[in-house]
Amino acid sequence: MSDFPETDPFGAAPEDEFERDDLTADIFGEAATVKAVAAPAPLTSEAYTVLARKYRPRTFEDLIGQEAMVRTLSHAFATGRIAHAFMLTGVRGVGKTTTARLLARALNYESETVHGPSVDLTTFGIHCQAIIEGRHIDVLELDAASRTGVDAMRELLESVRYAPVEARYKVYVIDEVHMLSTGAFNALLKTLEEPPPHAKFIFATTEIRKVPVTILSRCQRFDLRRVEPETLTPHLEKICRLEGAQIEPDAIALIARAAEGSVRDSLSLLDQALVQGDEGQPVSGELVRDMLGLADRSATLNLFENIIAGQIQDALLGFRTLYGYGADPSQIMGDMLEYCHACSVAKVLGAEATRLPKESAERVTLLGAALSAGTLSRLWTLMLKAFEEVRRAPDPAAATEMALVRFCYVSDLPGPEALLKRLQNGEDLLAGGAPQGPTGGGGGVTSQYRSANSNAAVMMRPQVQAAPHIELKSFADVMALIEQKREIGLRVDVERYVRLVSFMPGAITFEPAPNMPADLVRKLSLRLKEWTGQRWLIATDGQGGAESIYERDKRESDEARAAVLADPFMTQLMATFPGAKMTGFRKKPKPVDTTPEIPTSADETPDKDDD
């Protein structure tokens, strides 16, 4: 079909639509060619190339997150120690097939100046374009999923003995090699152990455990790592700039986290996200959250907080709300497992290590600070068991509700270490009125177990007498309460190591001073809960807080000392009595009166220490 505009029956174009040019000769020998003038340009509809293909790495430097592998290959090629077989393994989308193609190019690289294998692929060589397009005669890329049998492998190995036609090496790239049958692996063994010098093998697999060890021992193995969100986020931002797309940083962070270390998955999600927003408006984090199905994550975190607080009614109502909106019970249980893990990580490494969005990271950090490592570990075990129960149960929703009841029931049970300590101290664990049967207020242990073995009290939920409600409106009220309870050790630690950042009733955030005791946060949280009857979330923050009480008193004492020493009278006095020291400054004193005071009686004579 002609690309020219519509012509007359004799093939002549209308004269008003074309003009002659002196560049080409027509059939009559005249320098004439026709060129459209008035006719509109034909519409072209090119197929859209997805981002995962459009931005596939063309050089080893473009591989993100695989620096260790690139460094090893660079040294191997530089020293000439190039293996005859490579095994690339890793999760989906981390670059196994891409690395295999880059290796095929590097092995057969040849340019006007380079005539040997090279990992510097910034300039295209003679064979590079053909290898990229998959049409090079000496580079065979096979899919083991469709050619699993021994006959296909024998056919492939028959061609190994023939020398390459154009390139330096015959390169065999076998993807998903774990799909080969046992017979195919056995047929490959001998050739892989003693290949001809012109043959190279590159294998890629996501299931390295399914590859026989006899094959692995004959290959140089590279484990391609998951790409961390911290590395993936700048990569996605760069692609957005190249595409001229507007997307909020929070949206990119959500995509990088949802990709779970897969570059290809992140680009596929980014492709999907870029069409979510209105024309001319940036794609917001809220749109991406809806796209990824994360709109209910905040509600799931609320459910997790209800479990920690032991609020059974709120937990059940929250779950039924989520279930009514279509949330999968097993997914809800999986999210709570993730939050339990995030609390433990935040407790040790801080909020940034949780890889959660900022708001969620702050909330789980407060929860982690309020719970001991033992409590989080026991909660993880209970949730993991419940997750399996929900997956096997005939009614997952009912199984989830029963699991929530169990979580709330044990939320404030003391740990074995706490009960053991109380037993060693001779305390009566049943004091205060333990429940007398299965209908009791949360014990859940029948009377026959208590009568049969006194150690059954360890399994019971001791009924602690409700603490009087004490309202603390400021940090000063907290210090006053500690002083009132005569907790001398706790008061000293709080005064010396707590640099207050923020205070709200029920929540304290502070920057720890150096050498803070490791159990100060837990001890303070437990004491405040015991004294006030409510839970306190106490978190540490390294962003910089105010002075601790000890540091403030020391500073004020130094300022008071400096103010006194600056007075001319005291300067002269200290010069008169060399070696004299001034002590006892707690706050800035009033200006010193240099007028000598004449005592009226012996009782009013100043003490020597005051000087």
UniProtKB/TrEMBL annotation:
Gene3D superfamilies: 1.10.8.60, 1.20.272.10, P-loop containing nucleotide triphosphate hydrolases. Residues 82-228 form the AAA+ ATPase domain. It catalyses: DNA(n) + a 2'-deoxyribonucleoside 5'-triphosphate = DNA(n+1) + diphosphate. One of its GO terms (biological process) is DNA-templated DNA replication. Keywords: ATP-binding, DNA replication, DNA-directed DNA polymerase, Metal-binding, Nucleotide-binding, Nucleotidyltransferase, Transferase, Zinc. Pfam families: DNA_pol3_delta2, DNA_pol3_gamma3, DNAX_ATPase_lid, DUF3646. It is an enzyme of class 2 (transferase). This is DNA polymerase III subunit gamma/tau. It comes from Asticcacaulis endophyticus. The lineage of its organism: Bacteria, Pseudomonadati, Pseudomonadota, Alphaproteobacteria, Caulobacterales.
